[in-house]
């Protein structure tokens, strides 16, 4: 019986990416239900911080130092080192499933590792259970209208997990970290020539506790002024629909939905958003959904916890005044 491996992705600050903590939590729960051991693997130029954080979620972590990761594409290097680790693993240590986050780097890693090892890939899992033949992976299809469950014909493979489908929870006691050398094929020299950070960017919307989002109903870039003011007074983040982004009213980094970010805030305040299925799949797991829309029959009315029927500028301005009038 093989292990379950979790690939820990290093974040920009050298620590563990939040998505990797979510994936580790899912794998740990799956390991408990299937009777399999869970092993984390971190590949980085300086893996110490990320490995220590991953060990808070799984009982054992393999830490692999790859100096080239400091200025080369992480996904290609990590895939090569993981392939080497798999090649040198004893049959009893070979994993039955490898889990990684379905972010940009995680998807690249899964594809590269599949090409190097021949393992199949199931992408963007929304839930995973264990069956007699291996992992049973639920995925969202056709904008969330269908939730098929798939498995691997050979029983083993790679699974990428969508952001915010699991809440990261540390284990009861921390695990151990082991330094490990890994061979593998020479990775492609994909050098990072430039890093661009958005000036004054707030916390990523995937991590925000409160999101105020605008849709086509805000009418233009000026309409997002109210959205931004509400987000500021609530200490939240600004989100948007694809229609607003495609119109050039706000940047793509704030897009929520099937082709944007998947978010799970405690409160999602939707202004002028109809609630099309493509947007719903990106925010439907929010703790509370409050929508303001002129149309009482808008699709968002079917899944919002509270629908306010009215002009978003009138309602939003009144709400802003009330929030600003709060003591303290």
Structure at a glance:
The chain has 328 residues and is of the alpha/beta class.
Topology summary:
Blueprint: E1 4-8, H1 18-34, E2 38-44, H2 48-54, E3 60-65, H3 74-88, E4 97-101, H4 104-117, E5 120-131, E6 134-139, E7 149-150, E8 157-161, E9 176-179, E10 210-214, H5 224-233, E11 237-240, H6 242-246, E12 267-271, H7 277-283, E13 288-293, E14 306-309, H8 312-324
Parallel strand pairs: 1-2, 1-4, 2-3, 3-9, 4-8, 5-8, 10-11, 10-12, 12-13, 13-14
Antiparallel strand pairs: 5-6, 6-7
Model description:
- The structure is a single chain.
- By secondary structure, the chain is of the alpha/beta class.
- The chain has two domains: 4-179, HUPs (Rossmann fold, 3-Layer(aba) Sandwich); 205-324, Rossmann fold.
- Helices cover 27% and strands 23% of the residues.
- It is built from eight helices and 14 strands.
- The chain has helices at residues 18-34, 48-54, 74-88, 104-117, 224-233, 242-246, 277-283, 312-324; strands at 4-8, 38-44, 60-65, 97-101, 120-131, 134-139, 149-150, 157-161, 176-179, 210-214, 237-240, 267-271, 288-293, 306-309.
What structural category characterises the helix and strand content?
A: alpha/beta
Shape: elongated
Kindly report the spatial arrangement of strands forming the biggest sheet: 7-6-5-8-4-1-2-3-9
Please identify, by name, the CATH architecture of the largest domain: 3-Layer(aba) Sandwich
Task: Tell me the number of strands.
Answer: 14
Which quaternary structure do these chains form?
single chain
Global Rg:
21 Å
Strand content: 15-25%
Distance between the termini: 58 Å
What is the fourth-level CATH superfamily of the largest domain? HUPs
Fold-level CATH name of the largest domain: Rossmann fold
Helix percentage range: 25-40%
| Topology as a string of helices (H) and strands (E) | EHEHEHEHEEEEEEHEHEHEEH
CATH class wording of the largest domain: Alpha Beta
- Would you tell me the overall average pLDDT? 91
- The stretches of 5 or more residues where confidence is low (pLDDT under 50) are none
Q: List the domain count as a whole number.
A: 2
Give the number of helices: 8
Largest sheet: 9 strands, mixed
């Amino acid at each position: 019986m093989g292990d379950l491996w979790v690939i820990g992705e290093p974040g920009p600050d050298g620590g563990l990416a939040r998505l990797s903590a979510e994936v580790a939590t899912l794998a740990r729960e799956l390991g408990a239900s299937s009777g399999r051991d869970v092993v984390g693997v971190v590949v980085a130029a300086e893996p110490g911080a990320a490995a220590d954080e991953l060990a808070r979620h799984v009982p054992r972590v393999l830490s692999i130092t790859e100096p080239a990761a400091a200025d080369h594409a992480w996904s290609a290097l990590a895939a090569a080192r993981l392939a080497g680790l798999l090649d040198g693993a004893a049959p009893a240590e070979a994993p039955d499933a490898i889990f990684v986050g379905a972010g940009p780097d995680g998807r690249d890693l899964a594809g590269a590792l599949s090409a190097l090892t021949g393992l199949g890939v199931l992408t963007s899992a929304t839930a995973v259970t264990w069956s007699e033949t291996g992992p049973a992976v639920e995925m969202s299809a056709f904008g969330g209208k269908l939730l098929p469950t798939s498995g691997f014909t050979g029983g083993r493979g790679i699974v990428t997990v969508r952001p915010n489908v699991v809440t990261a929870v540390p284990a009861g006691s921390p695990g151990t970290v082991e330094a490990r050398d890994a061979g593998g094929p020479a990775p492609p020299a994909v050098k990072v020539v430039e890093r661009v950070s958005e000036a004054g960017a707030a916390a990523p919307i995937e991590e925000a506790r409160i999101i105020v989002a605008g849709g086509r109903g805000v009418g233009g870039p000026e309409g997002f002024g109210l959205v931004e003011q509400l987000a500021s007074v609530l200490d939240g983040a600004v989100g948007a629909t694809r229609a607003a982004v495609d119109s050039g009213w706000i940047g793509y980094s704030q897009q929520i939905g099937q082709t944007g970010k998947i978010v799970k805030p405690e409160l999602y305040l939707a202004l002028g958003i109809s609630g099309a299925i493509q947007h719903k799949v990106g925010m439907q797991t929010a703790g509370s959904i409050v929508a303001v829309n002129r149309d009482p029959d808008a699709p968002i009315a079917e899944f919002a916890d509270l629908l306010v029927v009215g002009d978003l500028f009138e309602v939003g301005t009144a709400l802003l005044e009330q929030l600003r009038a709060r003591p303290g």
